[in-house]
Design goal:
The strands form 2 sheets. The chain has a two-stranded antiparallel ribbon with strand order 1-2. Strands 3-4 form a two-stranded antiparallel sheet. The protein is mainly alpha-helical and 112 residues long. It has 4 helices and 4 strands, in the order E-E-H-H-H-H-E-E. A hairpin with a 6-residue loop joins strand 3 and strand 4. The chain has one domain. It is globular. It binds FE2/S2 (inorganic) cluster. The site of FE2/S2 (inorganic) cluster (FES) has 10 residues, from loops.
């Protein structure tokens, strides 16, 4: 699935970038900008940002289930992504309904 048509980035590209990013020591928050830089691409129109964030959330969960990312890193990443999404919503004055919310039962992020 193509996530960004400007830079031709697929969900598979995002998954590959996340494996590289989240296996680094002191892994940064995998925001769309960080992921795109890892892929040597740039955001142009930014219309893909909500889909990119949603894809990043989904891929972090999938990679944890596949055992490709340390569970401790996944927990820290989810927490950082929730903070990032909340800050972004406050800054833009939007209520990003597409942003995943933590499930009260298992702590996994649930995408609307
Ligand atoms: S669609 Fe991703 S930057 Fe334009």
């Amino acid at each position: 699935m193509i996530v960004c048509s400007c830079s031709m980035i697929s969900d598979s590209d995002i998954e590959d970038a996340l494996v590289e990013i989240l296996n680094q020591p002191n892994a940064p928050i995998p925001t769309p900008g960080v992921v795109y830089r890892q892929l040597s691409r740039r955001m142009n129109c930014c219309s893909c940002a909500p889909l990119a964030v949603e894809t990043i959330y989904k891929k972090v969960n999938e990679l944890e289930k596949k055992g490709l990312i340390c569970p401790d890193v996944c927990v820290a990443t989810r927490s950082k992504l929730i903070e990032f999404t909340a800050r972004r919503a406050r800054r833009t004055g939007t209520n990003d309904k597409a942003a995943p919310q933590p499930n009260a039962q298992d702590g996994q992020l649930k995408v609307a």
